Give the backbone structure.
Amino acid sequence: MLINETMMGLGKQRSVIREIFEYAKKRGAEIGAENVLDFSIGNPSVPAPDSVNETVKRLVNETDSVLLHGYTSAQGDAKVRKAMSDYTNKTYGTHTTPDNFYMTVGAAASLVISMKAMVLPGDEIITFAPFFPEYRVFAENCGAKLVPVMSLPGSFQADTDALEKAINEHTKAVLINSPNNPSGVVLSSETITKIADVLTRKSKEYGHVIYLIADEPYRELVYDGEEVPCILNYYKESIVCYSFSKSLSLPGERIGYILVSPDMTDSTDMYAAVCGAGRALGYVCAPSLFQFVAAECVGQTADISIYKRNRDLLVGGLAKFGFECVRPDGAFYLFMKTPEADASVFCEKAKKYELLLVPADSFGCPGYVRIAYCVQTEQIERALPAFESLAKEYGLC
Ligand code: PLP
């Protein structure tokens, strides 16, 4: 074999989500897209705010084209990084500088670069299940082992007792994701405080720093006044992996950043390692145009009231039909317990009603499904009778 078999395997094997998404397209061609109730994929359904398109137009019309489309510094344009830093400091009371920021092509790249910057052979990265399945791919690619720890039943907050037990001398970092894909749970300030306490204690016990990585592409997607605590204010050995994919509804433009805490022990060296990892992976100079757009639009969001309306409609309907859901305070996913142990069997039954749901086994949490409600509200209205029929089939209502 002349090629890397691990990579070939990854390329050949589609994720469960992609499988269902492809099925939805095929089924749509057979019975009409409007008749397929596809809740498989986390593609924002709300358009980017007008200010994004206006900024793009203005930049294209008013900026020197060579500058606009040229390379920026490898870590991102200095003014763009200053805009990120100013916004973060104003919003979260932090004292970051532009030199704590590295612009990336979205949260995926932020994660891969951050892991590469810190992982040594034999390292482990702990995360809480349910988790974004790509974490395993990213961690293993940089030579680390991903160690999932189940979240607390019911609340799906991080189980810090289980975390404490899972940490050992190989633990390099703990990776959290709040608001969470797939559970929609926002980690409370109390939970983050507990995680920080465990990491401080365990870092001392093993004589080396254990980092906290926060994957935050859904940070602004929270409802009913919920707030996402800024981890920099809780734990100094922190790295934030951010993306504008969901907050500004720009997943295809591939723009985000890494923020290395200014208070981290050896923060300057970690930042250098991030720059080095970006270089080694070929992730230098994130798209210039969208760096400039992000600098002007940072802090704005797409109209998230639409997601809230979808969430309320779905949560209310499913509860009425007797389904049990995890309380979804953020992101645009609803995590529902399946009335039978095998979520894949449940999803097959749902398909009879053209309802396409994702079994959560690949998120490390069997017995649940993920419902991505970033869809048109009419789709939810059309889906409710299908959910009701499904509930009746299980004798839930
Ligand atoms: N992390 C989580 C939890 C996600 O849900 C996603 C995308 O859906 C990503 C990272 C990747 O985000 P991006 O598109 O910005 O690379």
Observations:
- Residues 42, 106-108, 132, 177, 181, 215, 217, 243, 245, 251, 256 surround pyridoxal-5'-phosphate (CB under 6 Å).
- The domain at 5-49+303-393 is CATH 3.90.1150.10 (Aspartate Aminotransferase, domain 1).
- The chain has 14 helices and twelve strands.
- The longest helix spans residues 189-206.
